[in-house]
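Thread: quick sanity check before group meeting

JM: Hey all, I'm pulling together slides for Thursday and realized we never actually wrote out the predicted structure for the chain we discussed last week. Dropping the sequence here so it's in one place. If anyone has concerns about the input, flag it before I start.
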Amino acid sequence: MVDNTLTELCQELHNWFDRVRYIGQITLDANGGIFCDGKSVTVLEGQYFRITDSVFADGVHLYPDVGTTPESFNGAVWVMAVPPAVKTLAMDISAWREKYENVNAPSMSPYMSESFGGYSYQKGSAFTSNNNSGGASWKTTFAARMNPWRKI
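JM (edit): ok, ran it. Output follows.
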């Protein structure tokens, strides 16, 4: 199963924490096996890895729960060494998104201020960012914690 939050976080950081890259004819089998040019790819249980150029499995996965459709493609598998602090950051981002990126969250309203029936509100500066809703994004909210891991 693809870990969407970690995939997006690594993409934002321009840092995939990769240690070993297997590039060539990649085969994913029904039993969770990963092969590159016919040789088994070594991924430890509980370790993250990234698949690229796949039709069904692009993204970051946690081994052995590959959860992919068996396929063969010309691409890459990057075995990752994600620091515990980055894993925690990804979990915190996921929790924040679950709380604030839903249709009922004030940050998702397209309005910066509103008044009705004697009630009014105006979003504070924390709700100004570059996302389409006008609300704070996970990228701005967690920027300070992401900065140490960024690559150019």
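AS: nice. The chain has two domains: 4-80, 84-147. The mean pLDDT is 86.
JM: adding both to the slides.
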